[in-house]
Amino acid sequence: MLSALSIRDVVLIDKLSLGFQKGLCVFTGETGAGKSILLDSLSLVLGARADTGLIRYGQSQLSVTATFALPPKHAVFQLLNEQGINVSDSEELIIRRLVSADGKSKAFINDEPISIAFLKNVGALLAEIHGQFASHGLLNPATHLNVLDSYAQLNAEKEKVEKAYTHFKETESALKAAQMKLENAQNQEEYLRNAILDLENLAPKPDETEELTQKRLQLMNGEKMITCVNQTAELLNNEQQGIIHQTAQAERQLSKAAQYAPEIFENILQSLNEAQSILSDVSFELDNLGEKLGDISELPEIDNRLYALKDAARRYQIDVNELPSLLHSFQEQLFSLEKGEEFISQLQQNLNQAHADYLKVAQALSRKRKKAADSLDKAVKKELPALKLEKASFITEITTDDTLISPQGIDSVCFTASTNKGTPPAPLHKIASGGELARFMLALKVVLAHTVQTETLIFDEVDSGIGGATAAAVGDRLARLGNDYQVLVVTHSPQVASCGQTHYCVTKAEKNNETQTTVQLLSFSQRLQEIARMLSGAHITQTAQTMAQELLEKSCQNYPKN
Questions:
Q1: Which of 61, 84, 217, 488 is the most interior residue, by most CB within 10 Å?
Q2: What does the alpha-carbon distance between residue 279 and residue 491 come to, in Å, rounded to a whole number?
Q3: Which residues have a Cβ under 8 Å from the Cβ of 143 and sit 6 or more positions away?
Q4: Counting beta carbons within 10 angstroms of the beta carbon of residue 547, is it exposed (0 to 12), middle (13 to 18) or buried (19 or more)?
Q5: Band of residue 197 on the pLDDT scale cut at 50, 70, 90
């Protein structure tokens, strides 16, 4: 609830500090005394648009500070924490609003600077103002759906709809993703088939290039060795110039000489014979070595294979070693494409089922909303005659659209009213008379008391254009709201004023050649005089005092008599 309000340099107010309690608090005073200044100040601290015209003449800025004492777990604490403003739910909430003459506006919560837009969101959770010049909450059609659901206590049904909606959207997203993937695959189908045929013909193997490169190196070295072996064999076996042939000739020549002196040439001939035998063995080994070195005719084939692999890698812009995995990937994509239509069909069936499930719970919620709307309309209708709105009607209009898919269901809700017989109903915020509008809000608030989220309700001139029994009925309903909530009321009605648990009087007077507005918390005797003034005017009669006494004794028995 609002526990304190401090106002500095707002219109006719120099300095003003007020404390508030729970229950019904009334503000009275003569027309023009400055009651609207209080509402303007409250509106500023709740996020209303700044108006430099509110700054007191001769001052550079105005300041309004409001202190709220809130119950633990109030929704505003979560909102503040989400904004990075750490406030314990046991702390008071102090909101300060500054407006400078140059049009600049600043706002603070517990001395933390905040934006005006965020202040407006916070203000909507703290108080609702209903009157001729300011409005929040129920006047906004965007809130009507949640208000109706709260009235009917449909949280369980709403949760089912939200879950069905989430499932539907997830299934829808999965279908769209699959369709996009299939479309991309279809666009590349010809490319995939050609690429697969190309790579299957190439048949790349893992690590094939390393193996081919190693074998190529071995074959190239073998070719060099074979050349050397062949040249060596040629030196040994040439029929005219070969070493073996020359050694044989040398042996024949020395054999002729040995005929004449065998003892001289015996050892030499033996050595030549041994050399010829060794050279023959070497020639034989060289022949065998040539077979061991292999056939180098494979080299061109290996070169062609390496070129083909590297050319494919260049065309597909990947590493040669990635060719086998690329072929596998292409094959999988083609398989997905061939199975894609079947997969899409299954997802579409899932989406249809999700939509049917959503409609089932959404339509069930819609039926309960319509039943609750009828109950709400009847309850509000009962409140209207006593508030001098006997010719008025209240209708909760529900528009249902089965094609609408939203977390809130398939309904849109708007509270409408007609203040005159034969006049078509219009949205609440379009009702012309501010007093009628405030009384409509009062009737609604009485019926919706268990759904009110804010701790403080503010009514401006809810008694406009009424008196007598109707005003008494208004006061009674405000007092009933005051049993559960803090209710602030600006009133000209003595019947309404007498129902307050606390009573402030707003007056205007000249001081130091300046007109200033002051607000005073009235004692019982002062309150008696103020209500008598409201009954009779500037000249308070004994009759007016007696009537005031009767009103207070009837409506405010618990007010302290001091």
A1: 488
A2: 137
A3: 137
A4: middle
A5: very high
> Two tokens at 312?
């494919």
Taking phi over 0 as left and psi of -120 to 50 as alpha, with beta for the rest, 528 belongs to alpha
**CA–CA gap between residue 535 and residue 495 (Å, rounded):** 9
User: Measuring CA to CA, which residue among 472, 461, 446, 469 is closest to residue 394?
Assistant: 446
HSE-up of residue 217 (Cα within 13 Å, Cβ side):
5
Phi, psi of 110 (to 5 degrees): 50, 45
List the one residue out of 243, 249, 220 whose CA is nearest residue 231: 243
- β-bridge partners, 460: 490
- Collapse the DSSP code of 491 into the 3-class scheme (helix H, G, I; strand E, B; otherwise coil) and give the result: coil
Backbone φ and ψ for 329, nearest 5 degrees, come out as: -65, -45
Q: How many CA atoms lie within 13 A of 269 on its CB side?
A: 15
Per residue in 439-487, pLDDT (tens digit) is: 787 888 888 877 767 788 888 877 777 778 888 888 888 888 888 889 9
Q: Copy the structure tokens of residue 347.
A: 């997802």
Side-by-side strand order, sheet with 502-511: 127-130, 456-460, 486-490, 24-28, 502-511, 514-521
Across 126-256, where does the E strand assignment appear?
127-130
Question: Are the beta carbons of 318 and 308 closer than 8 angstroms?
Answer: no
CA distance 324 to 205: 6
Sheet of 61-68, strands arranged across: 13-19, 2-10, 61-68, 93-100, 105-109, 112-114
Which region, left, alpha or beta, applies to residue 388 given φ > 0 means left and ψ of -120 to 50 means alpha? left
Helix (H) or strand (E) holding 8: strand 2-10
φ, ψ for residue 387, nearest 5 deg: -95, 20
Full-model pTM: 0.61
- Residue 400's DSSP bridge partners are 411
**In whole angstroms, what is the distance from residue 34 CA to residue 12 CA?**
7
Count of CB atoms situated within 10 Å of the CB of 457: 25
Under 8 Å between Cβ of 414 and 395: no
Contact (Cβ atoms closer than 8 angstroms) between residue 487 and residue 459: yes
Tell me the residue type at 153.
Q
